[in-house]
Predict the 3D structure of the following.
Amino acid sequence: MNLIHRIEHWGDRNYPRWLDFLRIALGLFIFAKGLSFIADTESVGRLIEKTHFQLSIWTAVHYVAFAHIVGGIFIALGLVTRVAVAFQIPILLGAVFFVNITEGFNFMNSELWLSLITLILLVVFFVMGSGTYSLDHAMRRPGNKRWF
């Protein structure tokens, strides 16, 4: 068994049920952030301009918005959660270390703390998986074949 399978197996065995509700809330929060990015693309573009991102700014804005909307839904439903989280982690790393660093690492920077907590939760769900109240779990029941 390789390392990824061992981590997945450990996460599936040691998953408390209350963590499912936290996963659903995280998915809904990320989905709402994606909707807010679509509603105000100019401010998101200004944030990305501050990072001196080399690719097209609007490409990055659209990637972030799309990844947050689709990934938030997938995380909330518990559908291929680890893959959805894997698409979110680079965005949140960029938010913590590149976007929020322009505001400074201080206690009053609430966006930094929100991004940091979200990043930590994403790492937790990357390790722990989707839990028992999820579509992943429903598809893995005995008698159901895994389709991925």
Notes: The chain is about 70% helix and 0% strand. Residues 18-39 form the longest helix (22 residues). Residues 7-139 form one domain. The CA atoms of residues 139 and 145 lie 7 Å apart.
